[in-house]
Structure formats: C-alpha cells, structure tokens
Amino acid sequence: MIMSNDLSQEGVLVKQGPEKAENSGSLSQFAIDNAADGAVWLRRDGTHYYVNKAICRLLGYSREELMSLTVFDVNPQFTAENWAEHWEALKQAGSFTNEGRLQGKDGRVALVEISANFLVFAGEEYNCASIRDVTGRKHAEELLHRSGMLLRIAGQTARIGGWAVDLAEGRILWSDEVCAIHELPKGTAPSLEEGIGFYAPEWRDRLRAVFDACARHGTPYDEEMEIITAKGRRIWVRSMGEALRDDCGTITQVRGAFQDITEQKRVARTLDQSRRRFRELADAMPMIVWTADADGELDFANRALDDYTGITEADLPRSGWLQAVHPDDKDSCLAAWGESVRTGKEYMVEFRVRNRANGKYRWHLVRAVPIRDEAGTIVKWYGTATDIHDQKTTEEELSRLASRLANTLESITDAFYTLDQNWRFTYINKEAERIFGRDRTDMLGKVIWEEFPELHETRIYKEYQRAVDEVRTVQFEERSPSFGVWLEIHGYPSEEGLAVYFRDISGRKQAEEDIQFFALYDPLTRLPNRRLLQDRLQQALVAATRNRLNGAVLFLDLDNFKTLNDTLGHDEGDLLLQQVADRLTIGLRESDTVGRFGGDEFVVILGELDASAEQAALKAERIGKTILAALNQPYRLGGYQRQITPSIGITMFGQQGDSANELMKRADFAMYQAKAGGRNTLRMFDPAMQATVNRRVELEADMREGLQRREFVPYYQPQVDDTGRLTGAEALARWQHAERGLISPAEFIPVAEETGLILPLGRHMLEAVCTQLAVWADRPDTADLSLAVNISARQFHHPDFVDGVLEVIDQTGANPERLKLELTESLLLEDVEDAITKMTALKDCGVRFSLDDFGTGYSSLYYLKRLPLEKLKIDQRFVRDVLTDAIDAAIVRTVIVLAQSLGLGVIAEGVETVQVRDFLGHHGCAHYQGFLFGYPEPIEQFEARMRDRQGDADLLMRPGE
Ligand code: C2E
Ligand code: CA
Ligand code: CA
User: What are 256-285's pLDDT values in tens digits?
Assistant: First the structure.
C-alpha cells in the first residue's frame, strides 16, 4: 500500500525503469529499494522486471537469482493457465490484495500479504506487487487464539477466574468463572461492597485493608480467605490483586485473579494430617523407620535415626549414613543391598552403626523393601533398622561360650556325653563316638538303656541311677560289656539330666594287670617266676600231704647256654628260651607247674604222681626223660638248626614234710650231679630212688632183649565149674630172666605199659594162647577148653587192636570161640563207644569177653548192659575175705545177683579154700579160679596135671603139697 502510493506519487521511477532507477540515486528509488516490504514487478509472461532487497531477503535469493526466476518458481499458487486468468482479473480490477504463500530458496514457505497493482509503463503491462511478510503475525494470532482457549479451559479446571474494578465506577467486573465460584449467574457485576460482602465476616477487614493498599499505593496482594457463596457454602478462595495506572501514573483500575482453593485446601489439610500422623507414628516406633531414593540415599527417617546414630533430619538427603556403618560391616551391608537390587526382593542385614554423638557402634538389624514403578524399576526403599545390640552381644557371647565349650568337649581326649531326664542322649563328643564305634547322629535322642541293653547288668546302670536319684556325683571304674574296655566314669547329675565323662583306662588296667602278672611271671617266657614257683611248690606240698600222694620237683639247666647266648646274640638266646618254655609246657598235666627259675634254669613241679613213692619216682623219671627228649630236638634259630641239651635234677616229695626251699636245693644239687654225669641227662636226688630208677631203666632195656629172646612165657591157671570139671585156663605172663630167674608180672607189666612194650608183649601172649588153642583143638580131651588172656588198656585202645587179634586168630588157626579176652573195668570206661565197637567186632567173630577185677571200678549198670560181655570176674580182693568180711560178702553176693540179672556168667578168682568155693556156689557162682584148683604153671605142667586129673573130678590140685 505504501508502495502503490509511492509509485503513484513518484512516477519518475516508473518512467525511468528499474535498471535506471538503481543507478539514478533518486530518493524514491532508494526508498523502494530499501523498503521493509518487498516490491516485485512482474511481466505478463511471469518473468521479473524488478525486485527489491526486502523480497530478496524474504526469499533468500540474491537479486540476480530472483531476477532469473519466474513467478511460477516462487509462488506455487500459479500455473501458466491461472496466471493468465489472474492477469486478466487484475487488468479488470486494477488492483487487489490477498494472502498468499511464497516459497523461499531453502524451501521454507513465507505467509505474505500481496497487494497487486496493474500498471502500463512504456506500452508494457506490469503487475507491480507489494509483498508484506505476515508469518510472525499469523503465528502470534494463532497463539493468542489458542491460549485464550487454554486459559478458559484452565480457568474452569483450576476454578480460577479474573476480575477488575474500575475505581471510578466502583463496579466489579467478574469473569464467568468468578461468577461460577460465587454460585451466581454469568455476567453478574456486583458493586465493590457487594463483592466484599461475599467474604466470610472474619476475612472482610483483611480484604478491605489489602484492597485499599493496592488501590491507593499499588501494593499487590495475594490472600487466602473464605467466602460464603450465594448458596451459602463456605469455601476457600485465593484472591490476588494488582493496580493498573493510566498514562499519568494514576491508579485507575484494580484487577486480579480469583480462585476456588477449597479442594486444594482440603487435600493439603488431609495430606498434612496424614503426614503428621505418619510422622508421629514413625517417631513412636522404637526402631529407625526410613525411606530412601533409588540410589539408597535416605530421604526420610523418624526421630530414632537421630537417637541411634546422631544423623538428624537436617542431614537428609545427603546423610552419609554409610559412613556411620562399621568398616568391617560395610561390605556385607552393601552386598545385601546389591543382592536385593539384583533380585528385587527385600533384604535383611545386620551391621554396626556408629552413633555420632558418642562414637560408639551398636548392632542394628536392617530390613528393607524395594518399591518399584510400573516398569519394574526400583524407585524407592522402605525400611527399618532395629537396635539389636544388647541381644546380639549376649547372643554372640553365648554362642562364643557354647562354641568354646563344644570345641573343648570335642577336642578333649576324654569321652563325654549327656543324657536328658529320660536317659536320652543329648550330646556325644567325638571321643565317645569313637569308643561307641557308632555314628553319634544315629544315637542322639535314643535311650541309652535301649541302645546298650547289656548295661542293665552292670554297675554303670546302678551308679547312674544313684547319681540321679540322690543328686550326687558318682565316680567309678567298670569294664564295659559293650566295648570290652575298662572305663573310668564320672557322672554329674543336673536338672537337665546326667552329664557323663569317661575315659578308656584299658591301657592303665592292662599295665596294672601286667604289673601283677610280671610280679609273678617271667616276661620273656610268660612262665611263673621264681616267686610263684615257690608258692606253687608250697601248695603242692600241702596237697601231697593231704592226698597221701607223692610228687617231684625237676630242676632243669640248659647245657652251655652261656656260650650259645654269647655267640648267637641275646635276641636269639631269648628266642631259644621261649622255645624251651613252649616245649616244657606241652604234655604237662594241670596239676603240674613249669616255671623259669632264672637265666637258663627252669623248674617243673609234678604234683600227685602216685601213692607209691617208688611208682612216683618212676613216673617222675619217665617225665624227666620225655622232657629230655623234647628239649633235645633241634631248635630253629636265625635260620639255622641249633641243638641244646638240658641237665635235669629230680627230687621227690611226699609225706616227709619237706620245705619248699629244701626241695629246691635238692633238685638243684641233683641237677649238678646230672651235669657232672656228662650233661644231657637226669639224676635223682634220693639214692634209693635213683636205684629204683636205675633198676627200672635196666629193666626196660632187659625187657626189650627178653622179648627178643622169647623169655616171656604164658603160665596157665586152671578154671573149673562147680562140678570140678576143667573148663579152661587163664594165661598169665611170666618172665624167665636169664640172670634173675622168674620175674612176676607185677614188676614188669607196669613198666611194659609205660614204655609201650606191652604191645609186643601182648601180641606175644595172644599168639602163644592162640597157638595153644589150635594145638588143643586137635585133641579130644582139650578141644573144648577155652583160654583167657589179659588185655591191657594200651593194647585195647590201639587202633589196630581188633585187626591184630583177628590176624593172630587167622595165623594160628585157633577157634575164636575158645578165646576169651579179659578186660578191666577202667579200660572200658575210658571210651565206652569205642569199646563197644571193638568188642562187638570181635564178638561177631566168636571171641568172648570177661570183665576182670569186677567190683573195683565204678561201672554203671547202664554201661554194663550195653557192653557185649560174656562174664563178670569177681576180683580176688573180695573173694579172699568173703567168709570173714561182711562187706566183701555183700559185694560178692551183689555181683552174682547183678550178673544173673544182666544175663551174664560169673566167675570168681582167688578161690583158695573149699569153704570159699562153697560160699560162692551157695550164692550162685558156678565158675572158679584159684590156688584151690591150681597155680599158674607152664603148659607142660598144666597138661601133665590135667592128664593126672582125668576122670577124677574131685581131686583138687594142690601143688607143693
Ligand atoms: P589177674 O589177671 O587178676 O591175674 C590173677 C592173678 O591172681 C595172678 O597173678 C595169679 O597168679 C593170682 N592168683 C590166682 N589164684 C590165686 C589165689 O587163689 N590166691 C592168690 N593170692 N592169688 C591168686 P599174677 O600171675 O602175678 O598176675 C598178676 C597180674 O598181672 C594179673 O592179674 C594181670 O593183671 C597181670 N598179667 C599177668 N599176665 C598178663 C598178661 O599176659 N598180659 C597182661 N596184660 N597182664 C597180665
Ligand atoms: Ca586176669
Ligand atoms: Ca584179676
């Protein structure tokens, strides 16, 4: 519009044209060129004829650039078609103004107001347009529009409105919202006094005061007060006022905002109340109650925080509470928090917190719960911290004490366990577990008497009961039946039950036993030592006197032991002594004692050998020889065979009342004699005994020779029945010694038994008898006779006995039915079953058996019944005095009745008189043997006498008469 004015006023420019105009330097030209609005001259084809600086600036082109462009390049509104129409319309109207959009070099669109004027200059048609940039104005308009709308919405939402008072008029102008707040219709415009009248009476003076100050001095105000609405509701409002002045500075108007803050007030009050209540509640808590932000920084805490840590509310939120945590606990504290951050779960941790006021640490238990937003991110922490210091320290002290106690109990070498009131195990330490040999966890809670029922029988049970019943400590030693060890036990009763402390004292007990043992025994050979030997000998002496039996003491000394010991070394020497001890003990009876007297000296005490001193001496000598032989066997020492021999001295004891010491001296003396006699031998102390022994030794040697020289012969003693008829004979051995003449079996049979020579002798007798039977069998007068032969125990028990007998029968061709074997009672009783087997085997072949010396043994009827016997032979000891001794007579009668009742035959031996024979016959014994009928005689005499007696049964054979 300015431009068009200028153009119309300043025709020069137009006439001169733009190029000229630029250079002309005229004021008009300058003004147009530098005008704030853009100026553009367009030709009919749309090309530019002129552009000024402003339009170039607006579109961002240089003048040259814009001059080379067409209207179509900058105004997208135009095309070739509508440009022509537009040109024609402008030509018709001359000018018009409209809004449009121009596109700048950078593509930005500018909102413009275009005033176009049609102009013909120098025959050419031009569209001269003045262009004003309205982009900013348009924007502001739009903003204004929008903000007005927003303000309205905001006013309604916030219940805020505006008002104004024209001081001259004294009327108040209320916005719609202010009317609504007063619960009045829109457009209500009260007077100043009316407006003030809506305020609650107590607020009115205040309002007047602030309003006056504002109206008079321009002091703005902002007050919260109560009004009473048209409907009589009392509400809170916020009223703000400011003064408005005219150009001369006079206050003409007061205006302001007016807001209903009732809800706000209520919310604030409620909030305030709950906050206060929460605070009071939190403060009343005995523990620290706190909240923290996502970083764990405290943002609230109750008063307890101050109480316990000295951190005040003023220190929050940068409280530095972690600084108050004990350095040793910081890690665990942060770890717990970190863990909770990771897992999102609440946590609990104990740590020490320092009180700033006194610098002391106290244990706190902190619990915290993370609070998350919808996305799950932790935004806050709520927590508490409880002072557990006293509890914790007591607890710690207790647990330290308990663990110290437990460690002590575990580590002590003594066993310990506790039982409750019901005898149940409540604690078992390691050592007790070891002794029990069982897993202690298996035993806890179990009743001791059920776990170890064997204890019921022991002192342990009684003592425990006593400890509990009498509430007193018990202490005792007892061998545990459960573990086979000796225990020293202490029981301490308490209200909980019984605490038992015990230890394995087997070692000590063993030591005690060892001490006892080695006081009496030799540690090396474990044989009785000198002291015990002396005791034992004393006892043996007493027993011998009491039992009227004889015994012997053997004193042994190893020959040349010292030399051997020195050459072999003492270890080997010890081994040798041990082996000697072993050999000595083998084969000894229980009543005997072997002991080590010292060094290489041993003593053997043989108690109760025999009633006869002679026999006892013989037995002692025989045992001595056995020992000699045993010790002569080679010894294995250090991989070599060694030989050592003993010298043995023997002394006998019996009824003489000898002292133990005296006996030892004698045995020792005899031992030296044995040494003097060339070693490896034995000697009797008593010369008479020595003689007996010597004789016996000679006898044995003689017997061997005698057997070879067939000096042993059977003598036959007749056996008759009650008619005096000869039924057979008993073969009795006789030794026809080359020098000594006839020797009685009483002398040689025992020696033969002892030496085993009885076996060849017995065999010899059996052969002689069977040969005789075979001879007799061929003769009519002797064919019916039977022969009895005595069988000794050793013969009978020999495994080959039965076979031997059968073999002899077979070899000789004797009729087994004529052979009778005489066995003694004691022999059969040794092994009844074996006896029955052997006897039965022979009986099946026709051989018969008599029980010799019947009445002297102790056969029970039971055995008698089972043995396959033919006859009982009443011993001559009973027969001899049968007429004068009532007891013997009774025995004889009983034996006869017994034999009859068992269906056995009976024969009496030792019948020397007719009266005895008659007595026996009267009582039912029909078979006899004795001097009345004949002495034992060699076969020739026996047969001769038999022939003499033929046909004269009454004739009694009385040799020597
Ligand atoms: P025995 O078997 O009891 O033999 C009977 C013994 O009494 C015989 O003594 C005999 O001579 C003797 N005697 C017989 N009638 C009378 C009499 O009327 N009055 C007296 N006072 N004595 C009479 P002998 O022959 O000295 O034999 C003694 C013992 O020797 C036998 O006792 C027997 O046990 C044993 N004996 C004899 N020969 C042998 C034998 O060959 N082998 C075995 N193992 N022992 C035999
Ligand atoms: Ca006999
Ligand atoms: Ca007899």
Answer: 889 898 888 888 888 888 888 888 888 888
Q: Is 713 in the pocket of ligand 1 (CB under 6 A)?
A: no
Query: Vertex 608, ends 603 and 609: CA angle to 5°?
Result: 85
Question: How far apart (Å, rounded) are the C-alpha atoms in residues 843 and 858?
Answer: 24
Cα separations in angstroms, 211 against 86, 161, 544: 62, 17, 151
The one-letter code for the residue type at 282 is: A
Q: What is the pTM of this model?
A: 0.43
Q: Is 525 left (phi over 0), alpha (psi -120 to 50) or beta?
A: alpha
Q: What distance in Å separates the CA atoms of residue 222 and residue 214, rounded to the nearest whole number?
A: 11
Unique residue bearing structure tokens 């009443």: 874
Dig out the tokens for 166 from the structure. 């024209």
Assess whether the C-beta atom of 934 lies below 6 angstroms from ligand 1: no
Ligand 1 contact via 910 beta carbon (within 6 Å):
yes
Q: Is 263 helix (H, G, I), strand (E, B) or coil?
A: helix
CA distance 126 to 39: 12
pLDDT of residue 553: 95
From residue 587, how far is each of 254, 418, 529 by CA, in Å?
A: 148, 54, 20
Place of tokens 């109650």: 289
Least confident of 148-157, 364-373, 428-437, 715-724: 148-157
- What sign results for the dihedral spanned by CA atoms 576, 582, 587, 590? positive
Q: How far is CA 514 from CA 488, 511, 517, 883, in A?
A: 19, 5, 5, 65
Which two structure tokens, joined as six digits, stand for 545?
A: 């006197």
- Measured by CA distance, the residue closest to atom 25 of ligand 1 is 732
SS3 525: coil
Helix, strand or coil, per DSSP, at residue 954 = coil
**Using CA atoms, how far apart are residues 543 and 275, in angstroms rounded to an integer?**
113
Q: Report the run of H or E that residue 121 belongs to, with start and end.
A: strand 109-121
pLDDT attached to residue 387: 85
In degrees, rounded to 5, the angle at the alpha carbon of residue 219 between the alpha carbons of residues 218 and 223 is 135
Q: What is the mean pLDDT of residues 330-335?
A: 88
- The model's confidence at residue 22, banded by pLDDT at 50, 70 and 90, is very low
For ligand 1, say whether the CB of 765 is within 6 Å of any of its atoms: yes
Q: Which two tokens stand for residue 423?
A: 């005898």
Q: Where are the alpha helices (DSSP H) in 69-111?
A: 71-74, 80-93
Q: Please give the Cα distance from 933 to 920 (Å, whole number).
A: 14
C-alpha to C-alpha distance for 807 and 815, rounded to whole angstroms: 12
Best residue for ligand 1 mutational test, from 713, 715, 732 (most atoms within 8 Å of Cβ): 732
Dihedral, 460, 461, 465, 468 alpha carbons, nearest 10:
50
CA atoms within 13 A on the CB side of 679: 10
Distance CA 355, CA 492 (A): 47
The whole-angstrom distance between residue 627's C-alpha and the CA centroid of its chain comes to: 57
Residue 637's φ and ψ, nearest 5 degrees, are -135, 125
